[in-house]
Every structure is written in C-alpha cells, then in structure tokens.
Write a structure and sequence with these properties.
elongated, Thiol Ester Dehydrase, Chain A, 6-stranded antiparallel β-sheet
C-alpha cells in the first residue's frame, strides 16, 4: 500500500522552540477587491482610494481578516502541516499592529511554543506564535494559533 502521509510533520516531530519562515507573498489590489466581494466588506478604507487617501494611512489598506487569511495560506505553503494537520482549533491574543498596504510583501514567522499530546484525537495540540511580517521587517499581525496535528501512529 502506498504511503498516504503528506509532506507535513507528525506531532512528535514538533519541538518547542522550532522556528519556521514562510515564503513571501505580495498583496495586490486584486486580492483586496476579491476579498471584499467574498466577504461583502466594501468598507471605504479598503475600496475607495480617494476616501482612504484622507485617512492617517494615506491609502487603501488590506482588511485585517485578509492578512490573517493570507497567513493561513503562507503557513500551509511551508509544508510542515501538509497532510498531517487534523484541525485548526483556535486563535488567541491576535493583534493587528500595523496596516498591510497594496504592494507589501508579507511572510509568516512561526515558533512552536507548546505541544500537548491528545491521544484520543489521534495526535496532539501544537501552539504556534505566529507573526505576519512585511518587507520592512515590521510585524503587522501576531498571535497564537492552536493546531491539531496527527500523531505518527494515528488514532489509537
């Protein structure tokens, strides 16, 4: 039988202190327009260039939730949870510190801060301290993600 494991890490392979950096991704006007359409959030700060120019930001910014959504995709692109993530269980202490502008290139920096075996669910909880960082090195968003990762032996 073929190995069904993805390229991700099993729960036992995550160690507190492990650091991971994603590839970058440039945020485009199209990203913002599509996210507005998907969510129905056409707030002027995201959709009206003339109006947004008069704000303290001086231009349109990406939705905070768009940055968070992109972060989930960037974490997936690292490959460490591919085929082994069982569930995204929660986000704690998420902060939106700086705006993400059209043209910014963001990446995710993540550190394993806690692991806890959950045998009844076939894996374990991995707590990641996640930061969304722009091309200048500014942390735009940050917080803790709780991800359930499959154990090597799977459900008991």
């Amino acid at each position: 039988m073929a190995d069904r494991r993805g390229r991700g890490l099993y729960f036992e392979e995550f160690q507190v202190g492990d650091d991971m950096i994603s590839p970058g991704r440039t945020v485009t006007e199209t990203d913002i327009v599509q996210f507005s359409g998907l969510t129905g959030d056409w707030t002027q700060l995201h959709s009206d260039a003339v109006w947004a120019a008069e704000t303290p930001f001086g231009q349109r910014i990406a939705h905070g939730a768009l940055g968070l959504s992109m972060a989930t995709g960037l974490l997936a692109r690292m490959g460490v949870i591919e085929g082994t993530a069982l569930a995204f269980r929660g986000i704690d202490e998420w902060k939106f510190s700086k705006p993400i502008f059209i043209g910014d290139t963001i990446h995710v920096a993540a550190r394993v801060v806690e692991t806890k075996a959950v045998p009844r669910l076939g894996g374990g909880q991995v707590i990641l301290a996640v930061s969304v960082v722009n091309q200048k090195g500014d942390v735009c968003q940050r917080g803790l993600w709780n991800v359930l990762i499959q154990a090597e032996e799977g459900p008991g």
